[in-house]
Design a protein that fits this description.
The protein is largely without helices or strands and 265 residues long. It has three helices and two strands. A two-stranded parallel sheet has the order 1-2. The chain is elongated and about 75 Å long. The relative contact order is 0.07.
């Protein structure tokens, strides 16, 4: 099926296009409200500014699709494949994205208010300035994602994998349900950790680029695999702190930390 056939059939009232083969289809700006594209193959398709509100796209293949600024409000993308897709500025408010594969997706400034992202894989995705307020991301994978300026106020984020994620300028509030480890990391990423008591803190694989930890108490803290590029550790207490696999430290910095009791083995 090509784009022209789909649009003509849709105009005549047809809505069921499940399992349609639409690889590379040009559907920019198309009005496809409430369409059924379950298990359809839309790999490399162009759907920029298309209206796909309330669309059913369960298990659809949207790998590398361009869906920038599209309307996907209330759409069901459960277990869909969106790896590498462009969703910049796209509206996904109230969308169903349960267990969706979204590795490497561009979601810069996307709207995901109240979206269901439970168990979604967002590894290495760009969520800069995205609005995820009141979204459910429980058990989601957000490792190595860029969340600078993202809004996660009121969101469910328990058991989320934030390893290596950039949480700078990310907005949270008291209603944000966040595991204690990542709340601490968010706090020091955004407000610094100078002179803070971080005794025995779990900071494994945290993104701590440029964080101020001067004079912090890091005795017994676990920083294995953390990214400490540009971090300030002057006069920090590091006796018994674990730094194995930490990146971003110069050899001189490692030597100094070892002399102060840090462990790198």
């Amino acid at each position: 099926m090509n784009a022209e056939t789909l649009l003509a059939s849709y105009a005549q009232g047809e809505r069921d296009f499940h399992k349609a083969i639409l690889i590379g289809a040009q559907l920019q700006g198309a009005d496809l409200n409430s369409i059924n594209l379950n298990k359809a193959n839309l790999m490399n398709a162009t759907l920029t500014q298309a209206n796909l509100s309330l669309a059913e796209m369960i298990e659809a293949n949207l790998i590398n699709a361009d869906m920038g600024h599209a309307n996907l409000r209330g759409a069901d993308l459960t277990k869909a494949y969106l790896n590498g897709a462009n969703l910049m500025g796209t509206s996904l408010n109230q969308a169903q994205l349960f267990s969706t594969s979204m590795g490497g997706v561009n979601l810069i400034y996307a709207q995901l208010i109240g979206a269901d992202l439970r168990q979604a894989n967002l590894t290495q995705s760009k969520l800069i300035g995205a609005n995820l307020s009141n979204a459910n991301l429980q058990d989601a994978q957000l490792n190595n994602t860029n969340l600078i300026g993202a809004d996660i106020r009121g969101s469910m984020l328990l058991n989320v994998d934030f390893r290596g994620a950039n949480l700078s300028s990310t907005l949270i509030n008291d209603d944000t349900q966040l595991d204690p480890k990542w709340r601490v990391i968010w706090k020091i990423s955004n407000h610094g950790g100078q002179k803070h008591d971080l005794t025995n803190a779990d900071l494994t694989e945290a993104n701590l680029i440029g964080v101020n930890l001067k004079e912090a108490n890091l005795k017994g803290a676990d920083l294995r695999g953390a990214n400490l590029s540009g971090a300030f550790l002057t006069n920090a207490q590091v006796e018994g702190a674990q730094f194995k696999g930490a990146i971003g430290l110069s050899e001189n910095a490692k030597f100094d930390l070892k002399n102060r009791g840090a462990i790198f083995d």
